[in-house]
Amino acid sequence: MMKEILLVDDDRIFNLLHTKYFEKAGVPQAAIKSFRSGVECITYLDGHSKSGQTVFLVLLDITMPVMDGWDFLETLQDRDYRDNAVIVMVSSSVDGCDKDKAITYDQVMDYVEKPLSPRFIDRLKSEERLLGLFAE
């Protein structure tokens, strides 16, 4: 099964930083895609998930224009590929309500504060659904 990382954040700097962290952890550059809004990512998923043979690790910001992280999660619920999406909410919000809301979605595996840390990425390497994404 193929695996891809989808970075969804309107801040280019965070997308670049997180891309570099994943590349350093052994993820091939071709497996990492960046999007500046939830709409861009949903459009990509709609066109690239037809076979159900790809697991998508989606690092999702909450506050974005056009479609924020919550709208993205709601839209995802109506898609056939929702079970192939593993979501990590990545936000600058430290509001406990955001964390509580995030874990109500089956696809959300974690909620972390920006920026990601190399330690967190190392933790992702042991996630069963993501095995094979990182170089051994």
Give a description of the structure.
There is one protein chain. By secondary structure, this protein is an alpha/beta fold. The chain has helices at residues 12-24, 38-48, 69-76, 96-102, 118-124, and strands at 2-8, 32-35, 54-60, 85-91, 108-113. A 5-stranded parallel sheet has the order 2-1-3-4-5. Helix 3 (69-76) links the parallel strand 3 (54-60) and strand 4. The mean pLDDT is 92.
Work out the strand percent: 15-25%
- State the helicity in percent bands: 25-40%
The radius of gyration is 14 Å
Number of strands: 5
Order of strands across the biggest sheet? 2-1-3-4-5
Instruction: Note the overall shape.
Output: globular
The H-level CATH homologous superfamily, spelled out, is Response regulator
Task: Give the number of helices.
Answer: 5
- Sheet bearing the most strands, described? 5 strands, parallel
Under CATH at level 1, the class stands as Alpha Beta
Please, what is the average pLDDT?
Answer: 92
Structural class by helix and strand composition = alpha/beta
Order of helices and strands: EHEHEHEHEH
Number of separate domains: 1
CATH architecture: 3-Layer(aba) Sandwich
CATH topology category name:
Rossmann fold
Could you name the ranges where pLDDT drops below 50 across 5 or more consecutive residues? Answer: none
Question: What is the strand and helix layout of this fold?
Answer:
Elements: E1 2-8, H1 12-24, E2 32-35, H2 38-48, E3 54-60, H3 69-76, E4 85-91, H4 96-102, E5 108-113, H5 118-124
Parallel strand pairs: 1-2, 1-3, 3-4, 4-5
